[in-house]
Amino acid sequence: RLEEFLKKEVDLELSTLPDFEERVIDVSEVEQLMNSINTIPAPCAPVINPQAPNAATGTSLRVCWGLFSDDTVECYQLCYKPVSNERHSDGQAEHTLKVKETYCTITDLLPNTQYEFWVSALNASGISPPSERAVYVTAPSPPIIKNKKIQSCENAVLVCWESRDINPVDSYTVEL
Fold it and tell me: Is residue 34 part of a domain?
């Protein structure tokens, strides 16, 4: 029977034409709902703090910043580079770190060297403008005491040392 059925020509014409209504769909309610959804704006620029006392060692710096708004922030992008007195300082290597907190300790730096820092805030909507730039300075290396030049007498001692730093040191403190 199946074979006979498949041999027959089947007429697939509809005897009556379908009657479709033209409908206009009102999406104004959906538009209002879509417009009422709050989108998170990109954050404002963070404010980088000046260098705090005791925030540096010879090879590290602790950098802090903050926000003066209630922006939603997922992370921060901290950038830094060594400060150069040369006119062609564009060749200096710029470093970028992603940080979750409003502070970061940067290590493996050079002693008695100035570094320029700036920070941006990021969220799902984008990145903020960068903060103002702040200059931080690592602590100088301890000097090398020249043992062969030490001289002493009953009421005095002469101690000589030399700095291991390329940049000049402002002052030294001698402790007895």
Answer: no
